[in-house]
Amino acid sequence: MRILHLDGGREWRGGQIQTATLLRGLAKQAVEQRLLARADGFAEFAPGEYSAASILAASRRADLVHAHDGRSHSLAALLCPGVPLIVSRRVAFAPRQGWLHRWKYRRPALYLAVSEYVAGELRRAGVAQERIRVVYDGLPEPQWSEERPETPVVEVLAIQSSDPGKGASLAAEACRLAGLPLRFSDNLERDLPHAGIFLYLSQMEGLGSALILAGFCEKPIVASRVGGIPEIIEDSRTGLLTPNEPAAVAAQLRRLADDPALARSCARAARAQARHRFTDARMVEQTLAAYRQVLQGESTIS
């Protein structure tokens, strides 16, 4: 089995972390694979040049092409017509319409949707159910120290992002209303162990792999009730869901800050769920099963 992976993202974000996690897992299964990518974070995999010429040449030596983003989907559909194509679909918005896009979305043998929500968007765009499989994000469990400093004030941690959809201004206003300090992080693995509450706000989200990381770290979570997020956060069990309104977010933050028993219960349930449903081993196993079924030419994927 020779897999050609394509990742056209320039920045190191959740999708690229998932691609890297998959590459490491498949390597342990002795899968022959090659990566063409643009983000600097892929250096450990010695990626080839991400260009039309390189994709065309590399696809001739591949049994299957796995496109990990929309740009790669487009290029693979155009340049690799004789090779089975699998596309990871991570975004929450519906596929575009128009004859060119309809042609593009007919090309893949299978879509790996990151959530049931994303799978639903594909179905609404006309992709047949038998060409969609939900494979949730997976992460290796971080090996954090059990010694975590206690702070007298509950500090809220949110992701530092220039993306307006990630709700930085909303987070700041909600924490002001809740009377809780807020810190933005550009390195969750470093900062999550010291957080009191993890706040994840978004206008549109396919799933939200940072929530899985927070679950592994056993942190109470407040997150937007959008997209695939409710597939990770079950309200009042593995965290609290909220509308994207300052007063509503503030109320959920205060609820956790004022009820330590609820915060501990949600944090423990989030960790148990991460260890059961969102491991890297599970994600790799399901992806590898999809590869095998496509290569065996099965008409349906169950």
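[next item in queue]
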Amino acid sequence: MAKDSISALRREMEEKFFLERDKELLQALREQTERKRRKQALADASGITDDELLDQLDEMDIGSETLAALSLIPLIAVAWADGSIDAKERQAVLTAAEQRGLEAGHPGHDLLKGWLDTKPDRKLLDVWKDYVGALCHALDEEAATALKEDLLGRARAVAEAAGGLLGLLNKVSNSEQNMLDELQRAFG
């Protein structure tokens, strides 16, 4: 009898172990399927086909519904270039967001506000550089130039928003100019 009890207990433990393992495998499969769905939606919305770039964007929580916020990363980078964001820079970024259709309540707007409240990881800018490089490669020369001028113009407007020392000298700080130069290089 003791042998039967031990055997029954062993079987019960094995079944429990395999049931838990099956649950873990199913959860992993669901997560993998969801990630593929997100990446496909992002690819459809952006035209990006580079799987590695899509992975990077997904890891940074950039999805098809927040893709518009990606175009504002240069503005965020310039605003944070000197280590803090002042009220005029913040307003310049939010105005640019509204002009892009990212109004309050939109997932992209919420993401953007998070970046304004807390300086994002440098990796976000690196992902943007990869994104803009892939995008410019896919565009014709005229469209790539228009994109570059638009984004750099908006970034410069953020840099100039604070107005330098008392709004009189050097409208763009050295750190902001360095960031503007880095953004320009991302276009090739």
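[queue empty]
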